[in-house]
Amino acid sequence: MYAFPKTHRSQTGAALVVSLLFLLVLTLIGISAMQATSLEEKMAGNLRDRAISFEAAESALRSAENILKTQSSSLVYNCVTASDANPGLFLNACPPTVLTDSFWQAADKRTFTGTDLASVAGRPEYVIEQVPDQSDVVAGAEPDMYYRVTTRAVGGTTTAVTILQSVYRP
How crowded is residue 90: how many other Cβ atoms within 10 Å of its Cβ? Predict the structure, then answer.
């Protein structure tokens, strides 16, 4: 029979200490990888929200431009209030302050009613301003009319907000 050397007294447990340190290092690497993945997931979600809000605002912008294309001569522009029959239509004499949250929370705007916006947190809204061109007005001539369309939309959450603006000339 083979006899084992009696070296068990000289072992100090170094393998246990090294393996525990190795396990600690692997745990720290795993935790940092999980945190990085979580951050990347949040960034991807925010990017998706931003893209949804941009697409919703662009849809409302195109819808308002189509209204101007087909109905610009029949629309009535005035200094509107929430009780007026034509919300969201403004003359140059009383332009709205469209970049404030309080304006968009009031009723002086139109809501986009398209059906292709299933994943937005709220319906896109827009206003149309009638703006006469004063740059080339000849004495006695009617100025050309331009329309400034401003839309505001949110994405999958209300924190992703996009405001788009275009100038339309029929």
Answer: 25
CA distance 149 to 8: 86
Residues in contact with 98: Cβ distance below 8 Å, sequence separation at least 6, in sequence order: 104, 127, 150, 152, 163, 165
**Span 134-151, mean pLDDT?**
70
pTM of the predicted protein model = 0.70
As a whole number of Å, the CA-based R_g of the chain is 32
Q: Kindly report the backbone phi and psi dihedral angles of residue 131, in degrees, each rounded to the nearest multiple of 5, phi listed first.
A: -125, 110
50/143: higher pLDDT:
50
More confident position, 42 or 81: 42
Q: Which of 163, 166, 160 is nearest to 52 (CA)?
A: 160
What is the distance between the terminal CA atoms of the chain, rounded to a whole angstrom?
105
Q: State the sign of the Cα–Cα–Cα–Cα dihedral 89, 92, 96, 98.
A: positive
Runs of H (alpha helix) within the chain: 14-71, 101-105
Residue 121 CB partners (closer than 8 Å, separation 6+): 154, 155, 156, 157, 158
Quick count: other Cβ atoms within 10 Å of Cβ 72? 17
